[in-house]
Amino acid sequence: MRLLKNLLSLLISLLFICNSVSLQSQDKQFDLTKGVPVSQILKAGEKHKYSVKVESGKFAYFILMQEGVDAMITTFDPDGKKIQSFDSPNGRMGPEPVFLFTGKKGNYTLEVSALEEKGHQGKYKLTWEKLEPKGLTPQAQIDQLFTPWNRTDAPGAAVAVEKDGKVIFTKGYGSAEPEYNIPITPLTVFHIASISKQFTCFSILLLEKEGKLSINDDIRKYLPEVPDFGKVITLNLLMHHMSGLRDQWELLAMAGWRLDDIITKEHILRMVSHQKELNFNPGDEFIYCNTGFTLLAEVVARVSGQTFPEFTRTHIFEPLKMTHTLFYDNCEKLVKNRAYSFYLDSTGYKKSILSYSNAGATSLFTTVEDLSLWAANFENPVVGGKETTTKMSTRGILNKGDTISYAMGQDIGKYKGLKIISHGGADAGYRSFLVRFPDQKFSVNVLSNLASFDPGGMAFKIADLYLSDKEIVDVPKKEVTESNPSEAKTEVKVDPALLEAYCGKYELEPGQAATFTLDNDVLFVEAPGLEKTSLTVLSSNEFYVKAVEAKVTFMKDDSANSMKMKVNMNGQELIAKRLPDFDPATINMLDYTGEFFSPELSTSYTFVLESGKLIARHFRTGDVALNLIKPDVFSGNQWYFGHVKFVRDSSNSITGFLLTGSRSRNLKFEKKR
Fold it and tell me: Burial level of 276, CB count in 10 A (0-12/13-18/19+)?
């Protein structure tokens, strides 16, 4: 998935038309004047750069307002070295704040790129808002970083920095409830979404320490209503997203639920009890699965004899003096000092409704100060002891022996050479991120009530202000590997007839394909989010895609006597088979119409043709537009309706279809009429 996301997130250059100036070259660089906004039309496949002259020791703040295009801004120092990139999760609408702390005097560069597919264009406005002396302390510099949100009439965020078990900085910015101009403070309570998962895992480990269960136990020992899939699903597999269970949110969406509906634990347990198949054999893969953590929370309740919120309160929150923290499993319950969540569209801020009445995968309410106490417990354990806190960092191991980065509700990784343990969360308009640097006994957590806020990016910017140069080590330069061959090999000549044999469509994943074509004896590739780009020839069947630093190898697929390709990028490998050529005009689209029912979800979709396009219609959630990929296979335009594969019987009549999303595979729908 990460490889595909990199392909889909390729940064395509943009064309900028600067006020009355017509740009003649995408490599030209233009000056930006403080206080003078510049409006632009952004087209995929073009780019432009802005130069700003700044003295040393300054803080500069820019704002790019997106109006129909998803833009990303990258900053470069006077020597042309990349500083950082800015891309908030707000899509095509809303602001992209850009910050610049200058180290030396000179011309700094802002380069704008579009995260868009070919042919899309939109508007934006870029303004240099502020220039002032760089703050003399990390605390002052944090205030500067939060400039866009330091107002009480809009949502914002709270931040806390912890070092050696003590909170050394904490502050709030923006409004917990803009309707009443209630400011965010360090005591503001936020819903922190998936950061909740580490507390669920910790609860399981506390019960294991008491001898009441083992993480290697079968989930059905405690929850017999979980179907018997013929394979053991252990608690440990659930804690590492390796169970194979389908994801609860995606299943609910497929069944016609809105995620702002009131969703209880009982709803989720009943849905799980009706499942007939798994995504994969338990332990074979890692696929993020919220379902497992709802089940783990119920295990805690049944084994302990307390509700899950009661158990965590008495065994974790009270001993750690996390006095403003609770698991929220009743959407009608009142919580003092709570921040409500919001999103921004072209008309302004809107409420983003969250009515969850379930806990375990999500629904932890806490403050930045309380979350710092939790982080400090890993440095000097008050609850659980060293054995338990250490075990929390145990990464999952797949059946084939590969070790994943995920460890019981936490991601294990590195940042600028330092070990980090982190996790983020996103529900409705809430955004959260907690990162721990265990060797430095240092943590940062950022909690927000705005959907377009990037808490992870802000947390690392804050960490940079505190971690000294001696602590941060240089990341080793890339060695020449399978995924970085460009500098090791020179381009060679290949018979054009051989290149032509590689042309065609290759399925990256269901509903997503890369297309290879030959133009003037040069091989080109085009994919979702990737403009048509040429490949560098490394050998008769090996090529390099410079734009995404990927190596492509073409091979014969012996089973079908056809072609397949292997993509190596960022240390990962993807195999994609070539799709058979077909003429869409030969497909009878009426074959796919009718009513289809899923026994596992107790829901129906009606497939209709409108203006030659196939539509999947649900009485509650509306229409899903389907795009023909190959005979009997379609991609959908909704996150939960990604891939549809129709099934035929021996007489070639369609009897149903299989629905696949990103976290739920092969839901069976039967044709009723």
Answer: exposed
The enclosing H or E element of 420 equals strand 418-427
One domain for residues 602 and 666:
yes
Determine, yes or no, domain membership for 259: no
Residue 438's SS3 state is helix
Domain count, the chain: 4
Residue 606 within a domain: yes
Report whether 146 contacts 155 (CB < 8 A).
no
Between β-strands 29-31 and 48-54, what pairing exists: parallel, antiparallel or unpaired? parallel
Domain that holds residue 36: 2-134
Q: How many whole angstroms separate alpha carbon 57 and alpha carbon 62?
A: 17
- State phi, psi for 560 to the nearest 5 degrees: -120, 5
Q: Is the separation of the CB atoms in 228 and 324 below 8 Å?
A: no
Determine the Cα–Cα distance for residues 444 and 163; give it in Å rounded to an integer.
9
**Residue 229 amino acid letter:** F
Q: Is residue 151 part of a domain?
A: no
Least confident of 251-260, 350-359, 450-459, 557-566: 557-566
Q: Give DSSP secondary structure letters for 531-578.
A: EEEE-EE-SSSEEEEGGGTEEEEEEEETTTTEEEEEEEETTEEEEEEE
User: Residue 334: which residues within 8 A CB-CB, separation 6 or more?
Assistant: none
Q: What is the pLDDT of residues 54-109, one digit of tens each?
A: 999 999 999 999 999 988 899 999 999 999 889 887 788 888 999 999 999 999 99
pLDDT tens-digit series, residues 505-520: 898 877 778 889 888 8
CATH of the domain at 116: 2.60.120.380
What's the pLDDT at 369? 98
Number of H helices, E strands in the chain: 12, 42
Taking only the tens place, the pLDDT of each residue in 324-352 is: 999 999 999 999 999 999 998 888 899 99
Same domain, 296 and 373: yes
Residues 207 and 349 in one domain: yes
Tell me the H-state helices in 313-454.
Answer: 368-377, 385-391
- Joined together, the tokens standing for residue 621 give 């959630």
Average pLDDT, the chain: 89
Q: Are residues 589 and 540 in the same domain?
A: no
pLDDT tens figures, 436-456: 999 999 999 999 999 999 999
Place of tokens 């219609």: 617
Same domain, 606 and 642: yes
